[in-house]
C-alpha cells in the first residue's frame, strides 16, 4: 500500500519537475488561494475553487502520462500520435477554461465592490 502511494507521489513529482505548464497551473492556484484569503471567501466558494484547481492539476497529470505512453508506443512522427497528444492537451484546456470562468464568477463581483 505504502509502495503504491510512493509510486503515485513519484509520478506527481515527475510531472512537477518536467512540465512547465504544471508549474504555471500551480502558480495560478497559489495566487487564486491568496486572493481567496484576502477576500475571505465563503465555504462554497472555496469548495468550487479547490475543485476546479484539482481538476486542472489532475488533467495536466493525465496529459503527462498520455504523452509518455504515446512517446513509448510511437517515438516517430505519426498523425495518430499527434491527434492523441492534441486531444489530451484539449482536455487540459477545457479544465483551465472552466477554472478561469469559475474564478471570474467568484472574484469579479468582489473586485467591483472593493475598487
Ligand atoms: N509522435 C508524434 N507524431 C506526431 N506529432 C507529434 C508527435 N509527438 C508530438 N507531436 C505534436 O507535437 C506537439 C507537442 O508534443 P510534445 O510531446 O512536445 O507535447 P507537449 O505538450 O509540448 O509536452 P511537453 O510539455 O512534455 O514538451 C503535440 O501536441 C503534437 O501535436
From TrEMBL:
<keyword id="KW-0547">Nucleotide-binding</keyword>
<dbReference type="InterPro" id="IPR000829">
    <property type="entry name" value="DAGK"/>
</dbReference>
<keyword id="KW-1208">Phospholipid metabolism</keyword>
<feature type="transmembrane region" description="Helical">
    <location>
        <begin position="20"/>
        <end position="40"/>
    </location>
</feature>
<feature type="binding site">
    <location>
        <position position="60"/>
    </location>
    <ligand>
        <name>substrate</name>
    </ligand>
</feature>
<keyword id="KW-0479">Metal-binding</keyword>
<keyword id="KW-0067">ATP-binding</keyword>
<comment type="similarity">
    <text>Belongs to the bacterial diacylglycerol kinase family.</text>
</comment>
<keyword id="KW-0444">Lipid biosynthesis</keyword>
<dbReference type="InterPro" id="IPR036945">
    <property type="entry name" value="DAGK_sf"/>
</dbReference>
<feature type="active site" description="Proton acceptor">
    <location>
        <position position="60"/>
    </location>
</feature>
<feature type="transmembrane region" description="Helical">
    <location>
        <begin position="46"/>
        <end position="66"/>
    </location>
</feature>
<dbReference type="GO" id="GO:0046872">
    <property type="term" value="F:metal ion binding"/>
</dbReference>
<keyword id="KW-1003">Cell membrane</keyword>
<dbReference type="GO" id="GO:0005886">
    <property type="term" value="C:plasma membrane"/>
</dbReference>
<keyword id="KW-0808">Transferase</keyword>
<dbReference type="GO" id="GO:0008654">
    <property type="term" value="P:phospholipid biosynthetic process"/>
</dbReference>
<keyword id="KW-0594">Phospholipid biosynthesis</keyword>
<dbReference type="GO" id="GO:0016301">
    <property type="term" value="F:kinase activity"/>
</dbReference>
<keyword id="KW-0418">Kinase</keyword>
<protein>
    <submittedName>
        <fullName>Diacylglycerol kinase (ATP)</fullName>
    </submittedName>
</protein>
<dbReference type="Pfam" id="PF01219">
    <property type="entry name" value="DAGK_prokar"/>
</dbReference>
<feature type="transmembrane region" description="Helical">
    <location>
        <begin position="87"/>
        <end position="108"/>
    </location>
</feature>
<feature type="binding site">
    <location>
        <begin position="85"/>
        <end position="86"/>
    </location>
    <ligand>
        <name>ATP</name>
    </ligand>
</feature>
<keyword id="KW-1133">Transmembrane helix</keyword>
<feature type="binding site">
    <location>
        <position position="67"/>
    </location>
    <ligand>
        <name>ATP</name>
    </ligand>
</feature>
<feature type="binding site">
    <location>
        <position position="67"/>
    </location>
    <ligand>
        <name>a divalent metal cation</name>
    </ligand>
</feature>
<dbReference type="InterPro" id="IPR033717">
    <property type="entry name" value="UDPK"/>
</dbReference>
<dbReference type="GO" id="GO:0005524">
    <property type="term" value="F:ATP binding"/>
</dbReference>
<keyword id="KW-0443">Lipid metabolism</keyword>
<keyword id="KW-0472">Membrane</keyword>
<keyword id="KW-0460">Magnesium</keyword>
<keyword id="KW-0812">Transmembrane</keyword>
Amino acid at each position: 500500500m505504502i509502495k503504491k502511494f510512493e509510486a503515485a507521489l513519484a509520478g506527481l513529482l515527475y510531472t512537477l519537475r518536467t512540465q512547465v505548464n504544471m508549474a504555471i497551473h500551480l502558480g495560478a492556484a497559489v495566487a487564486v488561494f491568496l486572493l481567496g484569503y484576502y477576500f475571505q471567501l465563503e465555504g462554497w466558494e472555496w469548495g468550487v475553487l479547490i475543485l476546479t484547481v484539482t481538476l486542472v492539476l489532475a488533467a495536466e497529470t493525465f496529459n503527462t502520462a498520455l504523452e509518455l505512453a504515446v512517446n513509448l508506443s510511437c517515438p516517430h512522427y505519426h498523425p495518430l500520435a499527434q491527434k492523441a497528444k492534441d486531444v489530451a492537451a484539449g482536455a487540459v484546456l477545457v479544465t483551465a477554461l472552466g477554472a478561469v470562468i469559475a474564478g471570474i464568477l467568484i472574484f469579479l463581483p468582489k473586485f467591483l465592490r472593493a475598487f
